[in-house]
Design a protein that fits this description.
The chain has 390 residues and is mainly beta. The protein has helices at residues 2-10, 106-109, 163-166, 345-348, and strands spanning 28-32, 44-48, 57-64, 69-72, 74-75, 78-79, 81-83, 112-120, 123-131, 137-144, 152-156, 179-188, 194-202, 208-210, 217-219, 224-231, 237-247, 257-265, 268-275, 284-290, 299-305, 316-328, 331-340, 353-362, 368-373, 387-388. The strands form seven sheets. Strands 1, 2, 3, 4 and 7 form a five-stranded antiparallel sheet that branches. Strands 18-19-20-21-26 form a five-stranded antiparallel sheet, with no helix packed on it. Strands 8-9-10-11 form a four-stranded antiparallel sheet, with no helix packed on it. GO terms for molecular function: hydrolase activity, hydrolyzing O-glycosyl compounds.
């Protein structure tokens, strides 16, 4: 790995280019092997992302080794999707309004967000977000024995809290808050038993009001909530124990934290997550540590990447919603979305592209270190800019 890292560090600094022409918010990369569900036919690197307001959902892309690029994955002459046209789950929103946000644009109303695929024995499990027909954002899951499908949707999970659980003095109806960005954490207990938890973001930033006493504008918090679960033979997910908040947004986060991804390195569980408004240069990505996802809290937070990061080459902004693909000992491909400079959500609508960088937990001598974006150090860029959170 030291040789690979030294080679990457020796590359000249360059301006990154999008891996795909298509918009790819919330990109997630998955490498399947010959022993993965689906077998030899589906082994290789796959990519999936958010897909709003379309007749299908969660189109897939596959890495072409010969051409060194991602291609549209096809089946029967059509773009391969988790949910093809005509097979969208019946509980998904079909245009019903959101009571607390009546003027949502179509891409946010028909929300199909943050798909992430994980291996569980002989099955693949997809965690994703969709808005239901009452207008509430739900964390849900689907299963398949092959990434090419068919996929069985198991519907929304019971993880949505009521607003007064987070804000007891909220003056309105005790509504259900949405949850988004469900992701998996694998861990072991002291006996070595393998366990797993789902971590979701409570989408409190979508609920805003004026305090009737102070007249000040308020917004609900956006905690990241973990809950252990078991996974049965027939694909049934059952929660164990009680929900636990591992992180809630602070003053440095611009009103929210979201897009969390977990990785264990150097004997430590790390969480990489994003903060700020998703639609412009304010979006950025942090890294922190957590010792116990069921009882602990995120600590040692620091900024990993923002719009001024050297790796973006001055051409992109708003890097966020990370996922990782392991390349070697302590070295990962880092996938995230960003806005090309000159574009943003308010002026241009959805235009987030997928970029790929490298994240290392080893220094150039192969010694364990705190994670850094390799492209921040390439060429004449020098050491990465580190900014501690307030």
């Amino acid at each position: 790995m030291g040789v690979m890292l030294r080679t990457l560090l020796a590359w000249p600094a360059r301006v990154p280019e999008s891996l795909l022409v298509d918009n790819m918010p919330d990109p997630f990369a998955l490498r399947l092997t010959a022993t993965s569900p689906g077998g030899v036919r589906t082994q290789g690197l796959w990519l999936i992302a958010t897909s709003n307001n379309l007749p299908h959902a969660f189109p897939l892309y596959r890495w072409n080794e010969a051409r060194a690029c991602f291609d549209v994955a096809e089946k029967d002459g059509r773009h391969l999707c988790v949910f093809p046209e005509g097979h969208l789950p019946a509980w998904w929103n079909r245009g019903e309004p959101v009571p607390t946000e009546p003027d949502l644009p179509a891409d946010l109303l028909f929300a199909r967000w943050a798909p992430e695929i994980f291996e569980f024995g002989e099955r693949l499990v997809l965690f994703y977000t969709a808005r239901d027909r009452q207008g509430v954002l739900r964390s849900a899951y689907a299963t398949s024995r092959c990434i090419e499908g068919p996929w069985t949707d198991h519907g929304p999970l019971d993880v949505n809290p009521r607003v007064k659980e987070l804000v007891p003095d909220y003056p309105g109806e005790n509504l259900e808050l949405g949850t988004i960005d469900g992701t998996l954490v694998r861990f072991e207990d002291s006996s070595g038993r393998k366990r797993h938890a789902l971590v979701v973001k409570v989408d409190g930033n979508a609920l805003r009001w004026v305090d009737p006493i102070t007249g000040q504008k308020r917004v609900a918090p956006t905690p990241l909530v973990a809950r252990e679960f078991t996974f049965g033979e027939e694909g049934a997910l059952r929660f164990v124990g009680t929900p636990h908040v591992i992180l809630s947004d602070g003053p440095q986060h611009g009103g929210l934290v979201e897009g969390q991804f977990f990785v264990r390195e150097n004997g430590q569980l790390y969480v990489i997550y994003s903060a700020g408004f998703f639609g412009n240069h304010e979006y950025r990505t942090y890294v922190g540590k957590i010792d116990d996802v069921l009882h602990g809290e995120v600590r040692d937070e620091r900024l990993l990447m923002d719009s001024q990061s050297p790796a973006l080459g001055g051409a992109w902004n708003g890097p966020g919603h990370p996922s990782l693909e392991k390349l070697g000992d302590g070295l990962y491909a880092l996938y995230l979305h960003a806005w090309r400079n000159g574009t943003d959500y308010v002026a241009h609508g959805e235009a987030r592209k997928v970029l790929r960088f490298h994240l290392s937990f080893r220094d150039e001598h192969g010694q364990a270190c705190e994670p850094f974006v390799v492209e921040d150090r390439q060429g004449s860029r020098g050491a990465p800019r580190t900014v501690e959170a307030a």
